[in-house]
Design brief:
By secondary structure, the chain is mainly alpha-helical. It has 7 helices and no strands. It is elongated and about 65 Å long.
Length: 231
């Protein structure tokens, strides 16, 4: 017979998996709406955001209930804290997908630029989505070693974002009529870059959960260690 508390933990994990699936779908559809100029996809992403918000609140409620009624040991306490932070990051990724969708609606009403850096935008989205998928896999399978490669991939997204911005600045300089569309595409690229940051945050939480080592702020950790040595 399954213990009620084990069932409670299982339900939290299941809700996080559902959130992750919906969030990944939202980002994919938002970018597809932009690339294929299919506004109905963008509209569906915006509509689905409310369900992801609801799931975040469900995770938080279950975490509070578990902490208040179970008296968890250290490992379970870390799991509860990680679950709450993971759900928060998933909700923020979904918010970024909504931003992409809203910008897609605006962009789909405008004529195409002569040259658009949408290939780099698609690559950014692909890397960010894979980061999210791998971070959730690391969480489910308790594989903290998967976190470090995920974190390093965030630099790839940052580099692609810089390429997008440079290309759009060039287009705006060439023709002022490109400004409005270019600014909207910049906002899309920035939203995807932020989504990748949140996927990185999830990976860091997973690493801490299963290893007990905090790798979120390596510079601060090194500075603290140096100060300890001096003392």
């Amino acid at each position: 017979m399954t213990h009620p508390f084990e069932e409670h933990l299982s339900r939290i994990r299941e809700t996080l998996l559902l959130m992750s699936s919906l969030t990944d779908k939202s980002m994919a559809l938002a970018v597809q709406a932009l690339v294929e100029r299919e506004s109905s996809l963008a509209t569906s992403v915006i509509a689905d955001d409310a369900e992801i918000d609801r799931l975040e609140m469900e995770v938080d409620e279950r975490v509070v209930t578990y902490m208040a009624t179970h008296g968890p040991i250290a490992r379970d306490s870390r799991l509860m804290l990680a679950a709450s932070k993971i759900s928060s990051n998933l909700e923020r990724i979904a918010d970024q997908a909504t931003t992409v969708a809203r910008r897609a609606l605006a962009l789909n009403e405008e004529p195409l630029l002569a040259v658009e850096p949408l290939a780099d935008v698609q690559r950014m989205s692909s890397v960010a989505q894979q980061m999210l998928h791998d971070a959730i896999t690391a969480f489910v399978e308790a594989r903290f070693e998967m976190a470090l490669p995920i974190i390093s991939r965030d630099r790839v997204v940052d580099d692609l974002n810089r390429n997008v911005v440079k290309g759009l600045i060039r287009l705006m300089r060439e023709n002022p009529e490109n400004v409005e569309r270019a600014v909207n595409i910049m906002a899309v690229a920035k939203a995807i870059e932020r989504a990748a940051d949140h996927a990185e945050n999830i990976a860091e939480e997973v690493y801490y959960l299963y290893s007990g080592e905090d790798i979120r702020h390596p510079n601060a950790i090194r500075a603290a260690a140096a100060q300890d040595d001096e003392e």
